């Protein structure tokens, strides 16, 4: 399948209001945040966050839509990214547009970005003496972040370990 482009969010009043235009789900977002989405489309989630959902969520018909969305998310996540078909993605996005209000979808997209960021970052604990030494190294070399400092040190190590003429035999 060619690259799936998520459709634009259909605003309740036809206007975007302030800010950028929202988009519906991409394939990557389903794989990354499908479980989070399933948690937030549960009927019980709508009780605590009334302004995030459209009135449909409080009707008798919502259970069918909720089960349908869960099935679509599970089906999509059980496939390889390249095998996901456009029809399933469009069906899921249409259903999502029926569930969330404009405010609610903006909040969900924010939650997806936070989850993505959490999955890309790792927290490492360092002793204060090592943290101070790393900070001094960063300042001494004019580096902006600790990531750059660690990368610089690793590059130095890699270069010297590959170019070392001394072997264990000597």
β-sheet strand percentage: under 5%
Taken from the alpha-carbon principal axes, the silhouette is elongated
What is the residue-mean pLDDT, rounded to a whole number?
88
Number of helices: 7
For the secondary structure, the number of strands is 0
Residue stretches low in confidence (pLDDT < 50, at least 5 long) are none
What are the secondary-structure elements, in order, as H or E?
Answer: HHHHHHH
| Helical coverage, percent range | 55-70%
Protein structure class: mainly alpha
Biggest sheet character:
none
Oligomer: single chain
Q: What is the terminal-to-terminal distance?
A: 57 Å
Measured on Cα atoms, how large is the radius of gyration? 24 Å
Overview of the structural elements:
- The chain is mostly helical.
- The protein is built from seven helices and no strands.
- The protein has helices at 27-40, 43-48, 62-77, 86-99, 102-120, 128-140, 146-162.
- Helix 1 runs antiparallel to helix 3, helix 3 (62-77) packs antiparallel against helix 4 and helix 6 packs across helix 7 (146-162).
- It is elongated.
- The termini are far apart.
């Amino acid at each position: 399948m060619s690259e799936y482009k998520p459709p634009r969010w259909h605003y309740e009043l036809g206007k975007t209001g302030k800010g950028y235009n929202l988009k519906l789900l991409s394939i990557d977002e389903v794989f990354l945040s499908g479980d989070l989405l399933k948690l937030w489309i549960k009927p019980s989630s709508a009780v605590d966050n009334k302004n995030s959902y459209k009135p449909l969520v409080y009707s008798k018909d919502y259970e069918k839509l909720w089960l349908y969305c869960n099935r679509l998310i599970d089906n999509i996540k059980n496939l390889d990214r390249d095998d996901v078909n456009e029809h399933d993605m469009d069906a899921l996005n249409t259903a999502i547009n029926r569930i969330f209000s404009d405010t609610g979808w903006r909040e969900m997209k924010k939650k997806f970005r936070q989850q993505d960021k959490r999955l890309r970052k790792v927290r490492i604990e360092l002793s204060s003496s090592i943290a101070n030494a790393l900070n001094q190294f960063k300042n001494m070399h004019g580096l902006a972040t600790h990531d750059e400092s660690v990368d610089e040190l690793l590059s130095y190590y890699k270069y010297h370990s590959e170019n070392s003429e001394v072997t264990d035999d000597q």
